[in-house]
Amino acid sequence: MTALTRITTAAAYQTTLALGIALLPLAVLTSRLGLTLPIHRLVARTEHAYENAR
Question: What integer pLDDT is reported at residue 8 of this predicted model?
């Protein structure tokens, strides 16, 4: 993989982690209402892409 691909996947992974952290209060609130946000799937997918790009 090229350096640009690795940098892009690393940035996407870091952005996804930041989004997950930022949405944590909303996730707790929706969890209390019996709903779940699928943020964990997005984080897992970008983590997998990041690990494969290394």
Answer: 93
What is the identity of the amino acid at 52?
N
User: What burial class does residue 29 get, using C-beta atoms within 10 Å of its C-beta: 0-12 exposed, 13-18 middle, 19+ buried?
Assistant: exposed
* Chain mean position to CA 48: 10
Q: Give mean pLDDT, residues 11-31.
A: 93
Q: Is the pLDDT of residue 1 over 70?
A: no
Residue with tokens 């892009």: 8
What is the average per-residue pLDDT within 39-44? 89
Q: Among residues 20, 2, 8, which one has the least CA distance to residue 49?
A: 8
Q: By the 8 A CB rule, do 49 and 9 touch?
A: yes
H-assigned helices in 1-54: 3-22, 24-32, 39-53
